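Input chain follows. Return structure tokens only.
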Amino acid sequence: MDENILYKRIAEEIRQDILSGKQKAGSRLPSIRELTHRWNCTTGTIQRAYQELSRQGLVVSRAGKGTHVSSDLNMKQFQVQIPLRRASMVHRAEAFLLESLTSGFGLEEIQQAMNLAMDRWRTLQVNEPSSANPEIIRFSGSHDMAMVWLSNHIAETITSTTLQLNFNGSLGGLMALAEGKAELAGCHLWDIDSNTYNEPFIRKLFPGKKMLMIHIANRRIGLIVSPNNPKGINRLQDLTQPSVRFVNRQSGSGTRVWLDANLHQFRIDPAKIDGYEDEKTTHSEVARMIAEGKADAGIGIESAAAVYSLGFVPLDEECYDLVTYDHLAERSPLRDFIQWLSSNMVKQTIENLDGYNFSHIGDQKLLDV
């Protein structure tokens, strides 16, 4: 990410921690070195973030003593600013909306564009333990268009509840769940030996635990290609053609597990695929690369191809499940979310997504590992 943008994001996250009371007046903030590791950026970026917060009167930095939340902070003054800041954000959003409408884009296209842009930010989100908020369900796992839809619509029925998405791959989601950094993981990991999805991996990662699998959908996976498929890419073997540029998913993602297993099965050498090492974190990013002409083909789901009006060559159907601890599923708001998944409202509206079979959405399976 451009560090001219990143420093503002870091400053805003710390600012919100202070305004919410997570960081108290006088408390010491993480060192510059800690934050450079956490955000994977330069020390200059962190220094700019702290300088911005100092300018706002929120923090004080002293040589040799670190950075602290200002001890004479007037919280009432800053609380008054929150509605003004949100009103300003709505004003900016309306200006963007008006500009886009004037340029000939429809409301649905604009909404899709915002969802895709937010997907990119979610892959950069730092998912770490935070103060528990009973109204937030922390999701971590594989990128999926249906999860984006659910996140956008959950508050319509379950008031004040937020589904907070962090896309870091199927394996990353299960690890976040195991480490207490998420309440819900999303995965589609194929086990080639048993020809089943997810359960073998859950049993390996959560020994002695009671786990709950909640089915979301079966979805079509295949090759995302340029419109009209000008290079005739119809099977995995075609990826080795010298003229084909490929874009891949990252290691640890369910899509990458599926691809590597099939390359092995068909005896296709990854080294002969131009772009095999070019990894993207979401299906949307893969599709965007092809839409921009930076690649000829990528591996992904049909819904991502449809959003960009790209071609799609179906190769298989995979199972996408949510995973959580059984005891967490008995508590609100996760309990309410799981019940909502099986509602007629969800089933009737989510089925419009391309490339999915939602006939068993909400079905549950208890694993006494």
